[in-house]
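Extended Data, panel c. Modelled sequence:
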Amino acid sequence: MNEHQRTTEPATPESLAGQAMSESLADPTAPEFLGNPDTSEPLADPATPELLHVEQVSSGWVNKYLLTYRMPDGSHIEYEAASRKGLERYEAALRANAAVATGGPAPQPDAVCIVPLLPNDTVLLIREFRYPLNAWCLSFPAGLMEPGETIRQCAQRELMEEVGCRINPAYGDNATLVLRQAGYSSTGLTEENVQVIMARVIRDGAPQPEPNELIEQIELPYAEVGQFLATTTDLIGTRAQLILEHIRRIWGHRRKQPLPQEPMTRQDFA
């Protein structure tokens, strides 16, 4: 049984290779990486539990909730969950999530994660001390969206605060690419979603982190991503891990270099 559940769950001098890399990141459906498309019919949705009640158990920077569901067989279960949102906003978010399946709008992002692409085929990582982990962790700059902000505005703010960079104006609207939808990081615990945005950036002064934000920067050439992943002993966030692994595979494929880890096959993306 799950531990949370109990019964009663523009062009510039940047190289064409780098351009191709980021375009491939932007389009994970590129046929050269995915192989043949799946033409099978989608499976029917399983019977869906019904959310009956949301009870707030405790409050703070993170709030704890007890969710009561009616299961397809008529039984009830209670499930423990957490959210930064207050009770009213949290319950509204849960019900909006359920409505997507019947044509409701996609949820708005709670936070933004930026993949900063520097000139000269280099990606910018951060190494930050994360208090809930009691350890340093590799990731990309990220932060919660503020009321009224667009995704690009939030990305610009977080880039300046955490790494002293700004979106490269030479590219205009083509400087950023937002993934098709926000993703969920810990679906067994929280409804919080994060919108990933890839951004061509340039340096623009010193970063301005909060006093308790301990952040180091790592400029990582694409060609060295594989070796970095193979040798780092730091903890790593899921988004950073997946994006770096994608860079490693695409860069090795395009440069026709031996991959430092296991070779890529079409089965990897089947």
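The longest strand covers residues 193-203. This feature is highlighted in the accompanying rendering.
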